[in-house]
Amino acid sequence: MQNKLAFLGPRGTFSEEAARSLPIEMPIDYVPYPSIIEVLNAVARDEVKYGIVPIENSIEGTVNSTLDWLIHEVDLPILAELALPITQNLLVAKRGNSLPLSSITRVMSHPQAIAQSFHFIREHLPQAIVENVNSTALAAQTVSEHPDEAWAAIGTRLNADIYPLEVAQPHIQDFSNNYTRFVLVGQEPLPLPASDREKTTILVTLPEDFPGALYQVLAAFAWRKINLSRIESRPTKKALGSYFFVIDIEQKMDDVLLPGAFAEIEAIGCQVRQLGTYPFYMQKAGS
Description:
Residues 4-187 form the Prephenate dehydratase domain. Keywords: Amino-acid biosynthesis, Aromatic amino acid biosynthesis, Lyase, Phenylalanine biosynthesis. With 287 residues, the chain is of the alpha/beta class. The chain folds into three domains: 4-85 and 179-186, 3-Layer(aba) Sandwich (D-Maltodextrin-Binding Protein, domain 2), CATH 3.40.190; 89-169, D-Maltodextrin-Binding Protein, domain 2, CATH 3.40.190; 198-282, ACT domain (Alpha-Beta Plaits). It contains nine helices and 15 strands. The strands form two sheets. Strands 1, 2, 3, 4, 5, 11, 12, 13, 14 and 15 form a ten-stranded mixed β-sheet that branches. Strands 8-7-9-6-10 form a five-stranded mixed β-sheet. The longest helix is centred in the last third of the chain and has 11 residues, at 257-267.
């Protein structure tokens, strides 16, 4: 099988931009898939070797479909993480005369992009119907295919290079410091350059009959001076009030500290599953 990397398509999504921004040190083909779940399933079925999916946005928080699928449906290690600056743009079909914002009847995009541009839509497009679609690029493609309609899409400026579109309004996201974290997953290692920041992600299941178990989990890291950058609960889907805890650790897997912490956590009856130990990369805004 050729080295293929799946991303949320069609062409022109932020996921494609993230995929092409990864410092991959070998030839690779980029393959679009219609949904996050299909990206992950393609890797799990060995249709492609790797996949990249969004996992968290600095404005809207966790991409639940990504996290839940990684927890419940597939067993794919995280190989790398990339933080990508996100700039949302209002895109319209190229036409002879410019389309006033007040004339736009429909605006479409991925739910995350719409949420990130909520205040702009409310202030400048109150008359427009808001429609959620699977990706920002699908929204751009749809708008480009209906040039006679007063429709607009929200997405990356890259779409204006791919489809017959123009930017009606740039930088419409509500907050300037808008980043999305993407994770690269795969069933075998990938050559990547060293990074000055490494992470390990684990999934912890608490025992049902151990009061204070979460405190004990955090204490196992605290006294070892291991920094945690994120902890999030997700339903186990077994019973109301039953949760997993996803924990991001600010260091790579080692031979002493992390194994010792995991053993201490398991000693109180918790289950620990490693989701990956990997380099973290950040692309600066404007680069």
